Amino acid sequence: NLVQGAKHIPDTSANEVLLEVRGLQRGRAIRDVSFSVRRGEIVGFAGLMGAGRTELAMSVFGRSYGQRISGEVRLHGRAVDVSSIDRAIAAGIAYVTEDRKLDGFFETMTVGENLQISELSKGRNPLNVVSMSRAKALAKEWGDRMQLKAISDKARMIELSGGNQQKIVIAKALIQTPKLIIFDEPTRGVDVGAIVEIHQLISDLADQGMAVVVISSYLPEIMAVSDRILVAKRGRIVEELLISDATEERVMFAAVH
Predict the structure, then answer these.
(1) Could you tell me the pTM of the whole model?
(2) I want to staple 246 with a disulfide (CB 3.0 to 4.6 A). Which of 110, 150, 216, 241 is the partner?
(3) DSSP string spanning 183-236?
(4) How many Å apart are CA 164 and CA 14, to the nearest integer?
(5) Cα of 23 vs its chain's centroid, Å
(6) Are strands 93-96 and 236-242 parallel, antiparallel or unpaired?
(7) What do you get for the CA distance between the two ends of the chain, in Å?
(8) Which residues contact 193 (CB under 8 A, 6 or more apart)?
(9) How far apart are CA 210 and CA 176, in angstroms?
């Protein structure tokens, strides 16, 4: 089974609550949603298409699509401003998009150039200086960390495999030094080997103390990586299950009924 083997099963019940969402509402897409994620915990969001999982993640990440969002997002017990993506990133929230080709990278730029843009967005380069030498250094550093297959530092993103593209999208999120990272369909359209590596990376990030949210339409993936599963339906959370109590049948029953 390709989604087994990287399971991370620490007891996080005594850990600090890192993310707390209270009464989040956005039109009919999100209806009075409250949940929390502890430091070192992986919370999986399951549900059918249209359940509101991505809309919820986008709202926590500061993307409202022009709709009014009410409710509160708290990190380390303090309310944070997520009225825009820039403010969400500054607060320590990162989001790995479900559509990497549309939102995840600039396809005609190199790996290093894409990474440097993410570094600029975090404000770690206050002069906003674009440097070829810095881009190459970032490509080398993150290429090693993400175990990219051997690629030229001049290779454009469009030339990479789906697995390598996704690893760079994840690296772009991690370069922003987040406290919370949200993965939306993290292994969609990637090769078999990359699925295992991405699941291990998700586990490692939690082990390092990050709060992690995983959204996936593939239920075995949610079962494999999560410590706790929240089931969404019509913009609400309708079930919460510890992984020790969860079965695919229980999750699907909650999503459907």
Answers:
(1) 0.86
(2) 241
(3) EESTTTT--HHHHHHHHHHHHHHHHTT-EEEEE-S-HHHHHHH-SEEEEEETTE
(4) 36
(5) 21
(6) unpaired
(7) 28
(8) 163
(9) 13
pLDDT tens-digit profile, the chain (257 residues): 445 444 556 667 778 999 999 999 988 888 899 999 999 999 999 999 888 899 999 999 988 777 788 899 999 999 999 988 989 999 999 999 886 655 666 676 777 787 887 777 665 554 455 677 777 777 777 778 877 766 666 778 788 887 888 888 898 889 888 999 999 999 988 888 889 999 999 999 999 999 999 999 999 999 999 999 999 999 999 999 999 999 999 999 999 98
| Cα within 13 Å of Cα(227), Cβ side | 21
| Integer CA distances (angstroms), 108 to 113, 158, 159, 176, in order | 10, 6, 9, 22
Which two three-digit tokens encode residue 69? Answer: 């969002």
> What residue type is assigned to position 76 of the chain?
H
Report residue 195 as tokens. 């699925």
Structure tokens at 26: 């956005």
Total length of the chain: 257
CA atoms of 29 and 52, how far apart (whole Å) = 6
Q: Report residue 221 as tokens.
A: 């993936």
